[in-house]
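Quick one: examine this chain and its backbone structure tokens and tell me how the chain folds. Here goes:
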Amino acid sequence: MDPVRTVPLESDGRDIDTAVAVLSGEASGQLAETHAQLAGIPEAFRKNPPATYYGQPLLKQSVWSIDIPLYYFTGGAAGAAMVLGAAIQAGSCGARADCDLRRLSVTCHWMGIVGSTMGAAFLIHDLGRPARFLHMMRVFRPTSPMNMGAWILAGAAPTAIVTGLFINRPGVLGWIGEAAGYASGFWGAGLSCYTGVLVAGSAIPVWQEARRWMPVLFAASAATTAASILDLFYEGREARRITRVFGTVGRCIELAAGGRVEQSASRVRRVGRPFRRGATGVLWKAAGVLTAASLVLSLLPDRSRRTQRIAGVLGAAGSLAMRFAVHYITNASARDPRASFDLQRSA
């Protein structure tokens, strides 16, 4: 066994043992950085060098079109409306004489039918071919928000249709409509918030920090949208009272969750930049202002029908603006070449 070598290694600054091997060939004459060269670099630069790769972003922005934020909006409104319809069913069970509540329940389920159908159309249009939606249902994967969303959408629309056609009818058909209404509420709950889970589960830096609040924001915004649409097109004293409470709770939670999303994402200042700058910042702030104005109008005592409709327009516009803000903030964060690196360094 050879004795342990104790002769100092000779190096040209590139950690090559010249007693064993030498560099030759093309580029062998390039000089390596030595400690003397590094000593001339400012200390701040050595500790915090530019965290980019030639200024190129780490992530690719999404290829989704505006069909997706429209799907967020219509699908969320449909899901929240189905939840409200099922809740009204449960509250008016055994009180069939209260026709106003029963009509409101039917209206909510028909909102679910229209909204889920429109949402499916937007989603399929973005996919490009209807067969791609069917291909998503070849598997059942609870760990995939996108796969679960396809199943939720496939379950929500049929149960809402059965409810809208058969509820309040006599005999067996009426019982089928009642049961389908509760099933519709179950699927609607998932439809109203699963898109928030989908966005939060992406690798986009801005949503990584706010992932706990995104499902709450989407669910609350869905409730705001459903109540706002009912404020626009449905009349009735008892119905107005229910939609007022439902919408007020949704607006309050939406504003609070939106604030928490921005606060969480801005923990790393670079990551939260899209909330404060550019068109995305304007759109995000506009969504909050519209929703807050709708909340103020909805809390006015003895509000007129005109005030109710204005509150509905503002609430729906605020929710729509929030969905588009999420869409464009996603792309802005993905394009930022430093956001991902700054987020990783802060961990």
